[in-house]
Amino acid sequence: MPRLFNINSEIDPLKSVLLKRPGREVENLIPSTMEDLLFDDIPYLPIIQQEHDAFAEALKDNGSEVVYLEELVAEALDAQQGHQTLVDQIIKESGIYIKDVKDALSDYLLSMNTKDMVDTMMAGVRTDKLDIQSRSLGWLTDRQDQDLFLMQPMPNLYYTRDIASTLGKGMSINKMTYEARKRESLFMETIARYHPDFKGDQLPIWRDRNSDTTIEGGDILVLSEDVLAIGVSQRTSGRAIEELARSLFDKQNKFRKILAIEIPHVRAMMHLDTVFTMVDKDAFTIHPGIQDLDQKMSIYMLEPSKVEGQIKVSHHTDLTDLLKDVLNMPEINLIPCGGGDPIAAPREQWNDGSNTLAVKPGVVITYNRNYVSNDLLRKNGIKVVEIPSSELSRGRGGPRCMSMPLLRESE
Ligand SMILES: NC(=[NH2+])NCCC[C@H](N)C(=O)O
């Protein structure tokens, strides 16, 4: 049955969402690779899986279907016999160019059943799994001391938010910024290309992973059927936002205003959704660290220009006024992470206190550890569904980062 795709807001009732259950890839983190792989600690696999399952349950209890990236990729490959194409591409994108090594890896992956093959690509392939030493002088002489993996693990895959974004009835398949995550969006491309429920006319691709500018889904918020907010961040460039704007303004959809919000280019705030999320039609979480002392910010608004093919850009500094205007709301409530306290705010922001996922207007899923922010949300009339977070939070992402909505019910 063809799937329905439609995302016209951050808060409309969530009906279908894509997750990735953390797998062996998180056990393939070690202290010497952790930083490059964008983790601050090593999650304990059985507990991170339990916590992730609790997240999936909370989503289902609140009316959403949950589908898994790893299962969709396997189904997509089986439907179109895409195995060889994906294996060749992932080997290429893993920077493996020595023929003997390529052949050994390709034989190894293709000898597995589809699900194991997909899980293994995601978990990474250790060098000692294959008998490379006895067959490749090229590898023996080119390798680096640290080559523990022929294919590096992809521990960030459970942050499905970032690799692609459903916008209206179509999708942006994102070109990722760092080496550690570049290959991840290939899995979404595979689903869009081969999966019977995704491919073809039913899913227009607004922008694909071959673009030469980077954009990540954590930066993209769908504020309403015609307004997007996109962070200009460590991961998303102004040029990428402009490209996406041109594509969206051109095509048959309703987006007509894009707010490009500049945020600090630092790890703790790598995406807009780590400092700003929508919790109700007129309420948002915000980390006070993105505003200056007089609460000013730098925001560019992009709109279609009257001149064919051009874009109109205007500059704004007051987030509240701009949101009132574009969302047609008399008031906007910005709820500060950690209550704005100089210790609680940065502590809870670090553990994704501002990274809420709305399952319907005024109902959000959050991490239980951020009790100051959660209490404040409740005091502001928001219903908060807490999930356990000891291990999930170690990679610096919360409920919004771990979810890629496919369908929200429009009014
Ligand atoms: N949408 C998000 N905020 N995602 C968080 C991603 C965290 C991940 N470790 C990274 O650095 O890429």
Structure description:
With 411 residues, the protein is an alpha/beta fold. It folds into two domains: 297 residues, L-arginine/glycine Amidinotransferase, Chain A (5-stranded Propeller); 81 residues, Arginine deiminase (Pentein), CATH 1.10.3930.10. Helix content is 30%, strand content 21%. The protein contains 13 helices and 19 strands. It has a five-stranded mixed β-sheet, with helices on both faces. It starts with 13 loop residues before the first strand and ends with a strand. Arginine (ARG) binds next to loops. Arginine binds next to loops.
Describe the secondary structure blueprint for this structure:
Layout: E1 14-19, H1 31-34, H2 45-61, E2 65-68, H3 69-80, H4 83-93, H5 99-110, H6 114-123, E3 125-126, H7 137-142, E4 149-151, E5 164-167, E6 170-173, H8 179-182, H9 184-194, E7 205-207, E8 220-222, E9 227-232, H10 238-250, E10 257-262, E11 276-280, E12 283-286, E13 299-304, E14 311-316, H11 319-327, E15 333-336, H12 344-350, E16 357-360, E17 363-367, H13 371-379, E18 383-387, E19 404-408
Parallel strand pairs: 1-2, 6-7, 9-10, 12-15, 17-18
Antiparallel strand pairs: 1-19, 3-4, 5-6, 8-9, 10-13, 11-12, 13-14, 16-17
Helix pairs in contact: 3-6, 3-9, 4-5
Bound molecules: arginine.
Arginine binds at residues 38, 156, 159, 161-162, 181, 218, 270-271, 273-274, 395-397, 401.
List keywords for this structure.
Pentein; binds arginine; arginine deiminase activity; 30% helix; 5-stranded mixed sheet; 411 residues; EC 3.5.3.6; 19 strands
